[in-house]
Write a structure and sequence with these properties.
131 residues; alpha+beta; Alpha-D-Glucose-1,6-Bisphosphate, Chain A, domain 4; 3-stranded antiparallel sheet; 3 helices
Amino acid sequence: MQRSETLSVSFQASFDKAFNFIANPENLHLWTVDFALAPSLKVGEVYKVQTPGGELDLFVKADPESGVIDFYFGSGGKYRSSPSRLLRNEDGVVYIFTQFEPPNAPPGQFEALVGNVRKELAILKELLESS
């Protein structure tokens, strides 16, 4: 079984504002660490994302009713998922993100990815509370 770690952050922002920002692939470069290097470009049904490892296809399955925001990324029709969820919490929100260990990950990669998610959640909090 692959390892996973679920992290969360609470912040003061409306649900709609946070949902629309996080679920929009064109915003990924504003808050991801070591992933989207530039704004994602929509091509057909997917977005093209420039990453440090090359171009990836990405699509998002998002549902404001349930708060689900699942990111799917890959190439050649093979996708991995990064599941997440946004929850209402009184006058703010909680964003929950699960990082899975990639298949055949070298030692230390999973820990680095979890560290990146921690940074990304802090960036999201700062962006959404300051705007």
